[in-house]
Amino acid sequence: MPIIGLALGSGASRGWSHIGVIKTLLREGIEPDIVCGASVGAIIGGSYVAGNLEKLEHWVLGSTRTDVLRFFDIGLSQTGFVDTERLGWFLHNYVAAEDLRIEEMPKKYAAVSTNLDTGREVWFTEGRIADAVRASMALPGLFPAVRNDQRWLVDGGLVNPVPVTVCRALGADIVIAVNLNSGIIGKRNSGRQEAGPKSDQGVLSSIKQQAKEYSNSIFPNHDEKDEAPGLFYAIANSINIVQDRITRSRLAGDPADVLLSPRLAHIGMLEFHLAAEAIKEGEDCVQRAMAEIGPLTCRQ
Questions:
Q1: Contacts made by residues 68-73, CB under 8 angstroms, sequence distance 24+
Q2: What is the per-residue pLDDT across 195-207, written as a single tens digit (0 to 9) for each?
């Protein structure tokens, strides 16, 4: 029987589609033995192996823009814009309890992070799940870096956005990978963004206003060619470019046996309120690929 690995990629709010992917695989009788994730992939993967996926989905679908906005702490901190206490509450309630450890899980699990000083990958294959997830999702500019074993760690999507290599290293024979970065470059200027704050506002006021309108309008309108990009637009698109290029390179060097690419290019980095749409696309993506997935994962 083949050992099945599931590599869940990074992609911020597009990552809710991982919930739909996992649910549909399970409905089809395909249960992964190994789950590896980067950034939001680590969140969903950790929640799944800890038995909290249904609880997480319920919270996600019931959350509003205001609920997500509460995670942003617009203050004078120079480490990030996320309320770390509220983030901890979320991780411990909807991903994994504070003392739950990776090595205690019935399935192999790994979260990928990045060493901020060396640029090397860091794989969490033991220790507390919540700590591993926090390190894997520490997106620069939004989340503070995480201190672990005398090193500062940031988002795993910076070095390995779709961790196929980690699944194989942990013993997977067949790897199903989910790439959330397909087609994202050049898709954000869709014309549905609202104008950003006026340029005469202070920097802090500008950030606060954009955070309050974090969804579509967090990305200022760029119909005017000479208008400078807003802060969050520049951060988001820069990260998109990096992850798109790295994803292409990594998958070319170590391709997955099945690569799922949900059609999510229209969903921006912080459009978490589009969870229902993302989850549905994750489900549909698996259904479209079942003719390919089925024969490879047959356990008879």
A1: 68/214, 68/270, 68/272, 68/273, 69/211, 69/212, 69/214, 72/211, 72/214
A2: 333 333 444 444 4
- Which helix (H) or strand (E) segment holds residue 292: the answer is helix 275-297
233 contacts 221 by C-beta, under 8 angstroms: no
CA dihedral 6, 142, 88, 147 (to 10 degrees): 80
Pairing of strands 121-124, 34-38: unpaired
* CA–CA separation, 193 and 88 (whole Å): 31
Closest by Cα among 147, 86, 107, 136 to 6: 107
In this prediction, residue 220 has a pLDDT band, given cuts at 50, 70 and 90, of: very low
Would you call 155 a catalytic residue per the annotation? yes
Higher-pLDDT residue of 62, 74:
62
pLDDT above 60: residue 259 = yes
Give strand ranges (E) for 24-172.
Answer: 34-38, 108-115, 121-124, 146-148, 151-155
Q: Which of 47, 131, 136, 155 is catalytic?
A: 155
The one catalytic residue in 10, 13, 17, 39 is 39
pLDDT per position as a tens digit, 88-101 = 999 999 999 999 99
Q: Is the pLDDT of residue 213 over 50?
A: no
**Is 249 a catalytic site residue?**
no
d(CA 200, CA 52): 46
Ramachandran area for residue 186 (φ above 0: left; ψ -120 to 50: alpha; else beta): left
Q: Which of 202, 247, 239, 244 is nearest to 219 (CA)?
A: 239
Q: HSE (CB half, 13 Å, CA atoms) of 188?
A: 28
pTM: 0.84
What is the spatial distance between Cα 88 and Cα 82, in angstroms, rounded to a whole number? 11
CA 165 to chain centre: 17
Torsion, CA 259, CA 271, CA 116, CA 178, rounded to 10: -10
